[in-house]
Amino acid sequence: MAQINPSILSADFARLADEARAVEGADWLHVDVMDNHFVPNLTLGVPVVESLRKATDTPLDCHLMIEDPDRWAPQYVEAGAGSVTFHAEAAAAPVRLARQIRAQGARAAMALRPATPVEPYEDLLPELDMLLVMTVEPGFGGQAFLDVMLPKIRRTRRLIERHGLQMWLQVDGGVSAETIERCAEAGADVFVAGSAVYGADDPAAAVRSLRAQAEETASRTCAH
Ligand SMILES: O=C(CO)[C@@H](O)[C@H](O)COP(=O)(O)O
Ligand SMILES: [Fe+2]
After folding, report:
1. Segment 200-217, tens digit of pLDDT
2. What family does this belong to (predicted)?
3. Pocket residues for ligand 1 (CB within 6 Å)?
4. Smallest Cα–Cα separation from 195: which of 178, 212, 216, 183?
5. Out of 30, 57, 111, 178, which residue is the most buried by the measure of CB atoms under 10 Å away?
6. Domain 3-221, CATH
């Protein structure tokens, strides 16, 4: 079952509550946290996640593009995130951190920048509920999808299957009506979409349409 997670990064930050409610029906709301150190951009932090939690019933998928996630990620679970994604490149102790997030009752996920291979993390996969393969260089919305990431998505799906895991495989960056089918064919099942959703006249309809496209692709391919 394909999941569509609109990225609040492409929303109007002065109207975040309304923008969160505009995509009710989405599986998760994707919240991009950037600290201007791990990536060259600054967005929002724990207090905004606490407020978003109260503003919508859609569960929050927090993507932490920050240094020292070992210290900060637990605070995002406390703030109400249902899923917390830390970057492999930033975590000092990814297994301990994933266990901590799960022990607090949230889903634990790990993200890989485009140049980070999945293979060194093969043995960690059972500790995770989701792996995020970035399909742009993290930091900004509205960038062009990196086709060169498709083989990594395929290899990740094969590893998940080889280990018999139930974990989700998320893609994030440049996902749109033009690119989602390639991602679904390669084996992704959770799709973050920022500009493709919030740039549409009807964001909720854009979510439904992307989900239908991904599901149709998944049902006619045997990738997973
Ligand atoms: O994490 C990020 C960017 O670093 C993403 O979540 C973007 O916000 C996705 O935006 P689009 O590429 O879909 O416009
Ligand atoms: Fe993101």
Report:
1. 999 999 999 999 999 999
2. Belongs to the ribulose-phosphate 3-epimerase family.
3. 7, 9-10, 30, 32, 63, 65, 136, 138-143, 172-175, 192-196
4. 178
5. 30
6. 3.20.20.70
